[in-house]
Amino acid sequence: MARRQTVGCIGTGNMGSAFLTGLVKARLVRGRDILAWDKNRQRLGELQDQLGLRPARDNRAVAAAADVLLLAVKPQILDKVLAEIRGSLKPGCLVLSVAAGYPTALIEQLLDGQVRVVRAMPNIAAQVGQAATAICPGRHARRADVKLARRLFESCGSVLEIEEGLMDAVTGLSGTGPMYVFIIIEALSDAGVRMGLSRRDATALATQTVLGAAHMVQQTGRHPIYLKDLVTSPGGTAINALYSMERTGLRAVLMEAVETATRRSRELGRPVSNANGG
Ligand SMILES: NC(=O)c1ccc[n+]([C@@H]2O[C@H](COP(=O)([O-])OP(=O)(O)OC[C@H]3O[C@@H](n4cnc5c(N)ncnc54)[C@H](OP(=O)(O)O)[C@@H]3O)[C@@H](O)[C@H]2O)c1
Q1: Nearest CA to ligand 1 atom 25
Q2: Are residues 156 and 30 part of one domain?
Q3: Are residues 216 and 183 part of one domain?
Q4: Are 182 and 142 contained in the same domain?
Q5: What is the CATH number of the domain that holds 242?
Q6: 66, 122, 210, 241: which has the fewest C-beta neighbours closer than 10 Å?
């Protein structure tokens, strides 16, 4: 970001606030160079206290001042927000959207112009600077826009460039992914408690196990199956546990969950009103 440029943010909930916090922590933007608006005044006020950002009068005021504008409202209300800011966008503004399922073409169409859009799919781990984010450019975005978007989202974790046709799959896998892992950690913790461990110890052990296994995959660059073989000694505990997991279909459960979330992401991108969910 060039100095003195303004980052605008519409929606300062889970994702908007994580993104802005990442930017300020990474010193990519100063709090006073952020202009934001959220329907929920309390949320906006809390973020103002934390980051020193400037609260705007309304969404139009954010759009009119932003050199980079983040759209961080639920996909179900994005049509309405785009209609509201249409015609107010500062010339040359780069629009970033994190809305699940919402295509860049629809944003371009509803903003009625040659607007430069980069779509991103981060995940909730952005709140601790550990998101897995995928980004893709819209029709009018330039190479420099994608590079800037990458730099901004890297303040919240790692970034992968991907073609837009795969964004719903990304939403199903990593966008929704922390939920799968939260449930796995909770289930492992329950399992430990069932076997006699205290809740505190079981949760600590389950959490560190997930973290350690993820680090091993990342740092060794080995295929997970190779690492699995390191643990499964003949007739041992791991191979017996694996048999039980395969018999009860854990792999299929996860594959179905990702497929379901991917399908839902596709539905959310339709311009018809999607009343529920997200
Ligand atoms: N959460 C995730 O794990 C995740 C992951 C990847 C991508 N995303 C995407 O990130 C976007 C935001 O999700 P989120 O989880 O951050 O949602 P959120 O926590 O509900 O934040 C959205 C905020 O926007 C506010 N809002 C509603 N209508 C508005 C309007 N017209 N103008 C300005 N602000 C308005 C909401 O206020 P009220 O609560 O008062 O309505 C809320 O504070 C979504 O498009 C989602 O697909 C989320």
Answers
A1: 11
A2: yes
A3: yes
A4: no
A5: 1.10.3730.10
A6: 241
Taking only the tens place, the pLDDT of each residue in 211-234 is 999 999 999 999 999 999 999 999
Statement to judge: residues 52 and 159 lie in one domain? yes
Please indicate, yes or no, whether residues 133 and 206 belong to a single structural domain of this protein: no
Q: Whole-structure pTM over 0.85, yes or no?
A: yes
- Does residue 165 sit in the same domain as residue 33? yes
Q: Is residue 276 pLDDT above 80, yes or no?
A: no
What residues does ligand 1 touch, defined as CB less than 6 Å away?
A: 10-11, 13-16, 37-40, 43, 59, 72-75, 77, 81, 98-100, 121-124, 175
Whole-number pLDDT of residue 268: 86
In this structure, is residue 158 part of a structural domain? yes
Question: Which residue is closest in CA terms to ligand 1's atom 24?
Answer: 11
pLDDT of amino acid 273: 42
pLDDT of 271 reads 53
Give me ligand 1 centre to Cα 83, in Å. Answer: 17
Do 154 and 207 share a structural domain? no
C-alpha angle 68/105/131, rounded to 5°? 55
CA of 222 to the centre of ligand 1 (A): 37
